[in-house]
Every structure is written in C-alpha cells, then in structure tokens.
Amino acid sequence: MSLSRRIAGDWYDSTIPDNVTFDATNLIDTSYSFRRFRSRVKNALVLGRGSAIYANSGFDLGPHAHVEIGEFTMINGAEIVCDEEIRIGAHSLISWNVLLMDNCRAPRSLEKRRAYVDAILRNDARAISYQAKPQPIVVGANVWIGHDCVVLPGVTIGSGSIIGARSVVFESVPELAVAVGNPARVIRRLDAAR
Amino acid sequence: MPSQDPQPPANVRLGPNSRISGQDAFKRYFSKREIGLSLGERSCADGAKFAIGAQGLVTIGSDCYLNDCILLVEQEVRIGNHVMIGWNTTVSDSDFHPIAPAERIRDAIALSPLANGMARPDIAHKAVIIGDDVFIGPACTILKGITIGAGAFVEPGSVVTHDVPAHAHVRGNPAAIVSTDRVE
C-alpha cells in the first residue's frame, strides 16, 4: 500500500503537508507527526528512498525550516525542532525520544525569555520560533543515535558514528567515533572496514 | 482544541485563562488535599502529566508554559511565574523506593500482587522549588529536594542533582554550573 497525503488508517485526523516530499517507498505512521509543522519553504521535508518516520515522531518546523532525511534512514519516535536546517544522511538510525534541535529558541536574556513565554502562551498552536539565529545540524550517513539523546544547535555528527543512549551532544563528533555521556565525549573509534 | 481538554478533578484550581490539555494529564492524579494542583493566570500545561500522590501538592504560578513533561509528586512541587519546562522533562520530589536494601525488599513485596494489605516502608520525599523566570529545557530530570533559583537556565538533557543558584546556567549529568552571570 503506497503512502498518500491522507494516511490509510491514521488515528489522527489530518494530512501530510504539501511541502513534504515522499514517494511510494517511504513510510509515515501518522499525520500527528506534523501538528507543529509550520514551514512554508518548498520541499520543507524531503524523505530519501526507503526512509521511514515511525512512532509519533514530531516535526516542529519553523516557517523557514528545511529537513532532509537520507535513503533508508529510520526516525523511530524522535522529535525534530528546526528553524533553519537539519540534514540526516543515508542508513542512519534515530531512536525513540531523541531530540534534534537547530535552535534552542529560549533566549538566555531574562527579559527576552519572558517575552518568548508570553508569545507562546498567546499562540494557540504553542509553536513559536524564536528569532535567534539557528545553527544547522548535520548528521552524517550510517550514524546511530541511541534513545533519549539530545543533539544541540550547530552540531555535526560524522558518518559511521554512534551516540550512546541518553547522551547530550553539545559539540561536534568526528566520523567513526563512539560518543557517550552528558556532555557527550568520544570514548572509542570504529573501524570503517568492519 | 479546548473541546478535547480533560475534565480536571474537583480539587484542581485553574486561574483565569489557564489551561491543561492532553488526555493523560490526570491518569495518575490521586491528590486528596483540599487543593492538589493550582495554576495561576494564563498558564498552560500542554500534554503535561500530573502524577500526584494522595498528599501531593503542585502549585504553578502565572504565565508558565509546561510542554509534555511529567511531574511525580508525593509532597510538594512549587513553580513560580514565567517558568518554562520542556518536552519529556521529569520533575519528582520523591525517591519512589527506599535506598536501604532490606527496606527495598519490603517495598517490593508491599507493591506485589501478594502484598495482602502490607504497608509500604517510609520513603523519602522533599519539596522541589522552581523560582520565577526559570527555563528548564527538554529531556531534563529534576530530582527530589532541588531548589532552582530565579532566572536559572537549565540546558536540554540536564540531570539536576544539586540546587541551582539564581540566574545560573547549568548543563550536563550531573548538571554543572557553566556561568552564574545574570543576563538581562
């Protein structure tokens, strides 16, 4: 059964937004994933061949956000908060309750933070993109991010790497590394040939 | 969608323009206090889960936004004004089980289908106090007895095991202070 804008058997009464690009090889569980999707750019979310969005993953995308998901990549119940750009390469595995955010949105300044909270409370969708400069996230190919991890703005994760469960990634991780902890640190290197 | 908001129990006080949404908000709400949960004005708990024991009390001030977090409360959690708590964050004022091994065995039996009315051992609780203008990012854990001072900024994913001074910026597990400079 090929995927359509109105997903067959969807428990949530909505559709996949028009600027999400997918084809018959993709899988999306439910339109609930797009309840905070506000991007107006063309091809705001592009799914590579054979990629899948499972288990109530969420796309909280600001008006200018662009997200790319590589071929055969699995998003298994993660939350993606994007105001500019998040790219995930091919054959990557993103586990449940992982949070990828290219903009923390909450300002450090007390005064601006109050204004931010007030703006959220005045907005019915509770979805406000703070206008601080987002810092894009790039996740390479063949990356495995364990459950409950947080990947913060500006982070690049090199291809072939693994991020251990419940890690919080503040700084970029090189290729073929295993990084764990909060804040995450590289504890091992992997052999590309294996 | 206000029509889908859950009906709050009788001892929940919602101030003007405050709102609690999400079907799981009160699934584990058992407070027997005169008031078990109160929200000030214009505060919003979207998808927050209030798992509150019989003696538990949660007080939330005005202009707060709680997004898909969980509050596990046996004694008290007090939240000031203009506080934000992010997605998937847990705040608890209890250890849930005894630390001492022998007591923990008793607790396991008391919780089992074979408990036969056996009482659970005493379990440590201590109030959590979150000051005004505090930001707690998504995926954080705030443990029993913690006080977070006014204006503090808790980075996403932090596990807060010690008190946070006012205006401090903390991150990590355990959360460590990055700076204590007040940012106006």
Task: Draw up the topology in text.
The complex is a heterodimer of chains A (194) and B (184).
Chain A: E1 20-21, E2 27-28, E3 45-47, E4 52-54, E5 58-61, E6 66-69, E7 74-76, E8 79-82, E9 85-88, E10 93-94, E11 99-101, H1 110-122, E12 137-139, E13 144-145, E14 150-151, E15 156-157, E16 162-163, E17 168-169, E18 177-180, E19 185-189
Parallel strand pairs in A: 1-3, 2-4, 3-6, 4-7, 5-8, 6-9, 7-10, 8-11, 9-12, 10-13, 11-14, 12-15, 13-16, 14-17, 16-18
Antiparallel strand pairs in A: 18-19
Chain B: E1 12-14, E2 19-21, E3 37-39, E4 44-46, E5 49-52, E6 57-60, E7 65-67, E8 70-73, E9 76-79, E10 84-85, E11 90-92, H1 101-111, E12 128-130, E13 135-136, E14 141-142, E15 147-148, E16 153-154, E17 159-160, E18 169-171, E19 176-179
Poorly predicted residue ranges of chain A: none
Count of individual beta strands of chain A: 19
Task: State the helicity of chain B in percent bands.
Answer: under 10%
Question: Tell me about the biggest sheet of chain A?
Answer: 8 strands, mixed
Biggest interface, and residues per chain? Answer: A-B, 27 and 33 residues
For the largest sheet of chain A, list the strands in their spatial order: 2-4-7-10-13-16-18-19
Number of DSSP E strands of chain B: 19
| Class of secondary structure makeup of chain B | mainly beta
Uncertain residue segments of chain B: none
Name the overall outline of chain A. Answer: globular
Q: What global shape of chain B is seen?
A: globular
**Helical stretch tally of chain A:** 1
Q: Strand order of the main beta sheet of chain B, please?
A: 2-4-7-10-13-16-18-19
Bin the strand percentage of chain A. 25-35%
Count of DSSP helices of chain B? 1
Q: On the 0-100 scale, what is the average pLDDT of chain B?
A: 94
